[in-house]
Amino acid sequence: MLRSLVGSEMCIRDSYYGECGLRGGYFEALNIEPDVIDQVYKLSSMSLCSNLPGQIAVDLMVRPPKESDPSGSLFIQERDSQLTSLRRRAEKLTDALNQLTGISCNPSQGAMYAFPKIELPPKAVAAAKAAGKAPDGFYALNLLDATGICVVPGSGFGQVDGTWHFRTTFLPPEDQMDAVVERIREFHEPFMAKY
Fold it and tell me: SS3 sequence, the chain?
């Protein structure tokens, strides 16, 4: 019988808790050869363990308050509010990106990132090469310089040759998302027209 090899991880920084200052998480491996698990264990043992606040945060992440606990109903209300807000922000960002010339973006499903594909004009690709940059890196640096918005070029993720992407997040506070989206639009359209 063929069994699927499964590995998954969760950390307090990347969960909907979004506690970027706290370090801690867990890794689960199913149907992985014992020798491989031994190597993973060795690698993880070489690192320093999470500090106490990080360990407490992981415990709360994997064992949140139950509805019957004194803080249970408040936790559920805050969790649901945060998840609903993240969903709205993700939709707002994806919708806005999809309205921009040469950008297509799939809906975000389960992460705090969007990975839009960008069709860069040949002149932008040539300008990037002249500057010694990957085309999506060139775009990302220009976006950063013009707006202060930092995105990660897709070339760092092993994309298909001849395609360009960037990774962005929808973590700005909800009341700032319209302004963030507008700054991206105000940069993007003139950039595309220039090249």
Answer: CCCCCEEEEEECCCCCCCCCCCCCEEEEEECCCHHHHHHHHHHHHCCCCCCHHHHHHHHHHHCCCCCCCCCHHHHHHHHHHHHHHHHHHHHHHHHHHHCCCCEECCCCCCCCEECCEECCCHHHHHHHHHCCCCHHHHHHHHHHHHHCCCCEEHHHHCCCCCCCEEEEECCCCHHHHHHHHHHHHHHHHHHHHHC
- How high is the pLDDT of residue 37? 87
Spatial separation of the C-alpha atoms in residues 163 and 58, rounded to whole Å: 38
Q: For position 168, what pLDDT does the model report?
A: 95
Residue 49 has pLDDT above 70, yes or no: no
Among 75, 77, 51, CA closest to 61:
75
Mean pLDDT of 125-150: 97
